[in-house]
Amino acid sequence: MTAAPLLLVWLTLASTPPSPAPAASSRDIYSLEDDAFVSQAQRDLAELERNTQGLRRLQEELKESKALYAQKQSVPYTPDQKQRLLTTWASFFDYFLSTEVIRQRYWDFVKVPALLQPKKHAWGFLLTHGALTTELAHGLTYAQLTNGRKQLEVLLDEPSPDYGLPPRAFARFKDKVIHVATTTQLYTGDTYKEQLRPLLVKAGALDAPRVPWVLQEMKLNSEVARGLLIKRGATLFAKAAADVTQDTAQRAFFPVQRSVAEWMGDTRVHRSGKPLIRREQVDALIQRMEPGDVMVARQNWYLSNIGLPGFWPHAELYVGTAPELARYFDEDLGVKAWLASLPGAPTTFTQHLARAFPEKWSAYGQKDPHGDALRIIESISEGVSFTGPEHGMRVDYLGVMRPRLSRLDKARAILRAFAYQGRPYDFDFDFFSDQTLVCTELVWKSYAPSKEMRGLNVPLVNVVGRRTLPANELVRVFDAEHGREDRQFDFVAFLDGREGEGLAKEADEAAFRYSYRRAKWDIAQE
């Protein structure tokens, strides 16, 4: 079959019912200029690689817990077993939906003339088919493991806000991953890939970073998916029969989330770097903050911490500038007594930081790329970093909590955070190692109780068989302890994003308490 009929098959299988749609310029990534398009495609390819790595880690978890999935369905799951099953499924759902966003964003490569726009056509195919093969290989593997197990399917299909799972997510996942149209697209795309190589050469894509990886990944994933279809296809399809002519939503694996995926694709292209929280809101909030405050943050267009459950994906430690540190700590009697007991008896906390970490303290006194003073320590993909308000606070949602601790405890926590600065980001979310740190791990370890400090007692939770701490748990603890004399946090502020209005509004404590229950992928504002 030649290239043109192959694309015709793709378009036929992908057809969706006509409906009013916004202008192409507001939705279509293909409206970008070539250079901007390729840059965005390369960023999305890097994200696809991260998603794939995450799915492979989950496959290892599935192997380790295979007996749990094979358990007799007449034997009820224990609470611990349910938690392990749900955290694994929630992580799968995250990686799948993030991958589906990429697949949909580049879907219309079939409408881009290959001869007139070779770069967009070639890159669009790489992203779309790379995402499709990833979804099918891992999706069919997961579907085979869970298929036909009634107790398990009921558990996975129920809404679980704490895990970021909407109702019927599992049923819709199965309906789409086990689908004749999607499978046909796999075979069509594999054939088209071989015919597309000259165009990839012409577009200068073959030697670009990660392109050899994605081509190899397509091959490996296709082999896995084809093998499963040959081995179990009849059984799987019999249990998830769906006629292509009756399905008007083939484009999305998660039809209920289609608007989410389209919105996310549009937002990340057209609103990237334009957060909902305005600078004047950040400046006003800084006036109310104190060193040691804990922040939780969310950016709709930045899919941070994929694989961890919950609405809030990120946590940060507010430190403040050197003058703010001096005003807050220098006159505190507990801090003074502690400093006097240290070697050299530093007279101020900032002097102690400068002596303990001379290079780091010098770096902390510099400005960020926006010309702002550094005020925050957070763990981001580049590692544990000093950042300013434009990076750490100009986001789409921001919550601020104040630990109900002495100033001495907060000083010790900031000192620990300085010790961790510069260490790599922990992509494995391993809380038992101090050599790499994820965002919440930085906050958790900085405030960990010890003989010298009361600290914060925030329990770790099981996520995919590991003890870790999603940022959502910090807000859950705040909510659970609200009103108690022994509560660990006080409320400072909540800047609540309103995507539809293109802004953020100051919200009250009640709204913040509820925020951790919001569905992770739900863009509807309440």
What is the structure about, briefly put?
With 526 residues, the protein is α+β, with helices and mostly antiparallel strands. It is built from 21 helices and nine strands. It is 52% helix and 9% strand.
Structure description:
By secondary structure, the protein is α+β, with helices and mostly antiparallel strands. Helices cover 52% and strands 9% of the residues. Strands 4-3-2-1-5-8-9 form a seven-stranded antiparallel sheet. A two-stranded antiparallel ribbon has the order 6-7. A hairpin with a 2-residue loop joins strand 3 (376-380) and strand 4. The protein starts with a helix and ends in an 11-residue tail after the last helix.
Outline the secondary-structure elements:
Elements: H1 3-14, H2 24-27, H3 34-64, H4 66-69, H5 79-105, H6 118-146, H7 150-157, H8 169-177, H9 180-202, H10 211-239, H11 258-270, H12 279-286, E1 294-298, E2 314-318, H13 322-329, H14 333-340, H15 349-356, H16 358-364, E3 376-380, E4 383-387, H17 389-392, E5 397-403, H18 407-420, H19 439-446, E6 461-463, E7 466-468, H20 471-480, E8 489-498, E9 503-507, H21 509-515
Antiparallel strand pairs: 1-2, 1-5, 2-3, 3-4, 5-8, 6-7, 8-9
Helix pairs in contact: 1-9, 3-5, 3-6, 5-6, 5-11, 6-9, 6-10, 9-10, 15-16, 18-19, 20-21
